[in-house]
Amino acid sequence: MKTKIVNTPDLLKAASRKKETTRFCTANPTHFEDLKSLVKGQKYYIRTYGCQANVRDEETMRAMLEDVGYSFSEDIENVDVIIINTCAVRENAEDKVYGEIGNLKRLRKRNKKLVLAICGCMVEQPEILKRLMDTFPEVNLFFGTHEIAQLLDLIYESLTTGERIVSIESKQGEVVEFVNDCRNNHYKAFVNIIYGCNKFCSYCIVPYTRGKERSRHFEDVINECQKLIDAGYQEITLLGQNVNAYGKDLDEGYDFADLLEAVAKLGIPRLRFTTSHPWDFSSKMIDVIAKYPNIMKFIHLPVQSGNDEILRKMGRRYTREQYLNLVKEMREKIPGLSLSTDIIVGFPNETEEQFQDTCSLVDIVKYEAAFTFIYSPRRGTPAAKMKDNVSKETKVRRFQELVKHLEKGIEEHSNSMIGKTYDVLVDGVSKTDDNMLSGYTEENKLVHFKGDVSLVGTIVKVKINESHTYSMIGEIVNG
Ligand code: 5AD
Ligand code: SF4
To answer: Residue 168 pLDDT > 90, yes or no?
Structure first.
């Protein structure tokens, strides 16, 4: 198969943050009609790894594929297009992708016309792309996070030329507005408000794979939210690698607090947002969250470490004390607030004392939920160049110890819920028991309870009877 290289990634270019105003454009495939006539009745399959940004990208790709005539099929053995949407944030996320593509390559033998594509954050890294290209000659389309709008043209080119196409441009990126929409869920929706990240935490690959921070127009976000409300959605989550930076790259006079307030005023029953960097979490934002009952009293506030020296080496831009002061202000102004966090253990050369600072911070904050990770070196980031004297065993032991500290806070919170009644947005049938429904409280606690499937997508009152620490068992009250 001949290879056509349109663009390949370049980490230096990816890290550049030239001062330029955000560019806006609309997705407009050149070969839409040509592809439409080619793919009538054909099927696609898409699999996504990683964060909510990837999940939303998947929805965007689904909308484009369905618009041109493809329909989704679970039966991966018999589809015409397969897209693997990848994550690069840690090594184990990447390993899963190697495994999955290894399983899929046999499908190429059966169907020479199969479009087998890899996209997302993994291919934005030059060495990973090379490894994927060398290991999997069966994959005939590679495209990056900035090429999603070109998906249909890339598929058309691949089908008509029979070439293997690589189109991954490292750039600051623009804001692309998509005309059509597709949602994986009919009562909960993600709405992008800002793309990319300028924070460059020293361990993180995201600023390289997703470009600069660039905000959508205020009006575009509001219009999308209004459409969702009109369609009966119960919950909107405003999405960005760092939502607090919203508006800073635009000259429109709005910041995140203004946007959050405007969406809350539209009247969506539940409004959430993620992720917030503690560095630019303003008092104005806290006041808005406190003021509107439909903004959920749940904030995901990644701390990463409780030690000042490690925070400095991570490039997090705040100290332990500043983080704790922020938490104090939040808890004072927002009664009933739940906090969750991300923590990395085993950052290069982390001492036992520094690790214990993280444990003590966890004891103070008493998070209601947390995601914990063992540090994973990402080639191209500054931290990956640091020599590390901490053994794998120590990292694993610290990880387990940290989880115990976190569990104490989570358990305390879960136990305090017993006997109380909560509003729960019903998500679906419980994954472990067909007779049970499951859903989330406003504080984002998972609850299981008996009920009729017709309740899915509605908000019901559930009295909590039992705690299983990470999830609760309850019963519907008041019908
Ligand atoms: N190693 C381990 N965890 C990481 N994260 C980001 N980069 C790395 C890495 N190199 C974690 C951070 C971040 C979350 C999304 O993933 O905790 O908040
Ligand atoms: Fe990565 Fe830091 Fe940006 Fe989060 S804020 S995406 S951890 S660089």
So the answer is: yes
Ligand 2 pocket mutation pick from 90, 205, 241 by most atoms within 8 angstroms of CB: 241
Please provide the average confidence, as pLDDT, over all residues in the chain: 95
**Ligand 1 binding pocket, CB closer than 6 Å:** 89-90, 203-204, 302, 304, 342, 344, 373, 375-376, 378
Cα separations (Å) of 430 from 205, 210, 238, 468, 470? 35, 34, 26, 14, 14
What is the helix, strand, coil percentage profile of the chain, to 5? 40, 25, 35
User: What mean pLDDT comes out for the span 285-296?
Assistant: 98
- Region 146-169: what's the mean pLDDT? 96
Beta-strand runs (E) in 171-257: 175-177, 188-192, 194-195, 214-215, 235-239
Model-level pTM greater than 0.85? Answer: yes
Task: State the Cα–Cα distance between residues 124 and 442, nearest whole angstrom.
Answer: 36
Per-residue confidence (pLDDT) for residue 32, from 0 to 100: 95
**DSSP SS3 for 397:** helix
Residue 479 pLDDT greater than 60, yes or no: no
For residues 2 and 386, what is the distance between their CA atoms, to the nearest angstrom?
40
pLDDT of residue 293: 97
Which token pair is 286? 């806290």
Per CATH, the homologous superfamily of domain 3-10+22-167 is Methylthiotransferase, N-terminal domain (3.40.50.12160)
Ligand nearest to the CA of 194: 2
At 464 the pLDDT is: 98
Q: Which of 382, 376, 343 is nearest to 362 (CA)?
A: 343
| Model pLDDT for residues 195-242, shown as the tens digit of each residue | 999 999 999 999 999 999 999 999 999 999 999 999 999 999 999 999
Start-to-end C-alpha separation, the chain: 62
Ligand nearest to the CA of 342: 1
Q: What residue ranges do the domains of the chain occupy?
A: 3-10+22-167, 175-416, 418-476
Does domain 175-416 fall under CATH 3.30.420.40? My reply is no
Contact between 213 and 247 (Cβ < 8 Å): no
* Banded model confidence at residue 98, pLDDT cuts 50, 70, 90: very high
Q: Which CATH class is domain 418-476?
A: mainly beta
Q: Which residue minimizes the CA distance to atom 4 of ligand 2? A: 241
Burial code (b: 16+ CB inside 10 Å, e: under 16) for 358-379 equals: bbebbeebbbbbbebbbbbebe
Report residue 466's pLDDT band, with 50, 70 and 90 as the boundaries.
very high
Pairing of strands 421-429, 214-215: unpaired
